[in-house]
Request: fold
Amino acid sequence: MKKKILFFSFAFSFTLFIVLTLFSTPLSIKLETSPNLKQQASYIEQEKKILSYLNHYKKQSLWNINLKKIIQDIENISSRVKVFARKKYPHQLILLLNEKNTALLLLKENHNFYPISYEGDLGVKKNLQDILNVPILRGAFFEKNKALRQRILQILQEIPEQGRPLSVQNISEILYHEKHDSFLLYLSTKPFVLEIEKPPSKIKLQNIDFVLNYLKKINRHKAFIDARLDKKIIVKKN
Reply:
């Protein structure tokens, strides 16, 4: 009887030790980035933000890690990253970062979505569950004209991914204005429309940010912002 009690006592103590060890062992994060992604100049700054974000998890237990949230948060930091994550018990989180080659989505008249690569190439139809959080192009002009798609991609390359009033993350839809040979950017933060025709300079971006901040300050709910001119920005009622 005493041997059984000693055996169960030992087994319980050992199990408790294992459980406490699993929950108290600091998290080890293994981050692997594809070579193509590392070569992109724009990714260097984004990688710093990703590493800073992951530092918050290092004191947590692997058991408490929400993989879906981490994947979503990292892909929000960089729209060019596709994340694959898995847990390796007892305490390792493995993250694989690959290049996401979908810059935009084209919405055709048949209401189907088609991915557009960063080179401007049009891909095959996307299922609804695979739709990415990227700006949507509307209109037959974009479907027929690759050069037009490349033009808007050049513009978007000069706009920050996130963190500023005008950022790629804040652009919901893009239309082509044939008469002005320009693009209409519909912002998701407020019903503002920005008209632009070429890649903006740093000064132009600062001026657009200033205008958007001012409109927010005066609580303007709608506005049409014409940023085609080099030296000034015109704001009209939308």
